[in-house]
Every structure is written in C-alpha cells, then in structure tokens.
Amino acid sequence: MNVSVVTERRTPAYSSLAAGELSGLVARALLTEARLTPKPGLVDIRNSGAHRDMDLAAFERSTTAIAPWMEKFFIMGNNTAALAAENVLVMLRPLGMACENDMLQATNGVNTHRGAIFAFGLLSAAIGRLLARGEPLEQNRICDQVARLSRNIVAHELSAKKAGKLTKSETHFQCYGLSGARGEAESGFRTVRTQALPVFNRVVQEHDDTHLALLQTLLHLMAWNDDTNLVSRGGLEGLYYVQQQAQKLLWQGGRIG
Questions:
Q1: Are strands 16-18 and 2-4 parallel, antiparallel or unpaired?
Q2: Nearest one of 111, 188, 121, 108 to 151, comparing CA atoms
C-alpha cells in the first residue's frame, strides 16, 4: 500500500511512502540525530558529552530495538481511525511500554529513547489515522492529529495532585510550569513547526548543506526550547545558562561546528 506524502516544501523528501517503510524512516531519523557531530553535552561520534551511562553504540542498539515498533503504532492508528482521537491514546500506551522494554533490554537498562518512542509513536499513529481517512499526509495535518491524540494529556498526567513523591515530569510542571514532551505533543509539536523546521529549511535553501542545517537547528533549540532534561541535570539555572549562551552565539552570528 502506497501513501501519498505532501510536505510544505516544493520538492518533498518522499513523494511516495509505503506503510512498511515507516520504521526505516524513524531509524534513519534516530541515527542521524545520534551521529550528528558536534552536539555540546550530548552523545555524538566524538564522545558521550555529559552522559556517563550511554554512548553512541547504545543509541544504535536502541534504534535497532525500537524502530520496528513504529509500524505497530501505525497499524493501531489505522485500525482505530473511526474513534475519537482522544480515546486512542490509552490504546497506544501498551505499545509504548512494550517498545520501551525492548529499548531497555538493548541498552542494559539505560533510557536512551523514551522521549523518541513517545513522539514517533504518536506520529506513526497519526499517519495511520490520516491514511485510513483518505486524508493527505501534510505536515500540519499530521501534527494536528498528534495534538488531537494528546488532548488534555498535560492536565491529566501532570496537573493532578496525588499522594506520594512526584515524578520528574510532574515536578517540572507543578513547580516551574514546564510541560516537556507531553506539552509539545499536545501543541502539535509547535516548537518543531515554528522554530526548528523554519531554521532547517532556510539553511538548506541558502547553503545546500543538511549537516549545517541540523547543527543550526540544534543551536536554535538550545537557545529557545525549555528542555526539561537540562532542568533535571542543572535546575532552572542550568537551563537558563545553556539558553543564554546559545542565544549569545546566535546574536554574534556564530554556529556550532
């Protein structure tokens, strides 16, 4: 079965996408991200950055373990397309947990890609829903479906008061108002659509250099994204320091590299 893909660019990366290719595309995305070098503080080809428990090989093993699951997310989205989107998330959770278990087995218990499983699982399900409905696979339509699938996830999972110790995600939201990956999904990946992709597309158009475009996109995300991983490691002070340094570099016309 072939899926017509329509992107915002005049020359789409893929004019036709078979449903079974989704896992391969996700694997390519994950490996491209992991191998992008240099990435300050992050695992790349040169070193493990600020991480003590993971390296590039762990990310590669993790990718091999989780990418095949994306077709399962796609099938679930396709099979439940007639249901209201907000009723599908609970059906996706068991897939996410099983995928995460495979990741942890591949990495000896290290969380390399939990956030990626969440994001790509939702994207895969959203694509499956659109295909079942006969709708074109446009960037904004896919992101809108993710927003619908994730509707009220922040309120349901981060806002509710409960007994016992708060998770890191609950602490970030209830203490600092940072909604993390859940908030990004519920917004239909607003940061990606309004910040990351415009920078990436502009640099590719101006320089015809995908590697440079990815590095510049990373720098912009470091400057403006409220990264809860940074908060976990260095508190708000750590987040603000990274943002300020990245913004300073951008204002001076600099780039990573």
A1: antiparallel
A2: 188
